[in-house]
Amino acid sequence: MHFTVVKFTVRPERDAAWLSLVEDITQATRAEPGNVLIEWFKSVDDPHQYVVVEGYAGLEAAEAHTNSEHLKTAFAELPDMLTSTPEVISAQTEEGGWSPMPGAVPR
């Protein structure tokens, strides 16, 4: 799986527009044939910082996502919403998606 994590810090006055954009991106990305997962998280330290975790069947699927029309459309809006350049971690992993975390099983 090709695994990507991206951290975004959003201008406070753009939070509502950001959440709308994220919803559109998420739905379109989940419909991509090579998408394994896409999940968004909000920082507990900064109420305007968001992290997306994405997994793709392989590098080709990740590249298709990067070149998708919905992502190009979103990237045209991003500069007006962000306070800083997003930070990214991208790697190939042997995992195929989420797996159970040992030692943290509910009672």
From TrEMBL:
UniProt-listed Pfam families: ABM
Keyword Cell wall biogenesis/degradation attributed: no
Keyword Membrane: no
PROSITE patterns assigned to the protein according to its UniProt record, in alphabetical order: ABM
Molecular function per GO: monooxygenase activity
Domain ABM: 2-90
EC number(s) reported in the record: 1.-.-.-
Cross-referenced InterPro entries: ABM_dom, AI-2_Isomerase_LsrG, Dimeric_a/b-barrel
Broad enzyme group: oxidoreductase
Domain of life: Bacteria
Keywords noted in UniProt: Monooxygenase, Oxidoreductase
Protein name: Quinol monooxygenase
Organism classification: Bacteria, Bacillati, Actinomycetota, Actinomycetes, Streptosporangiales
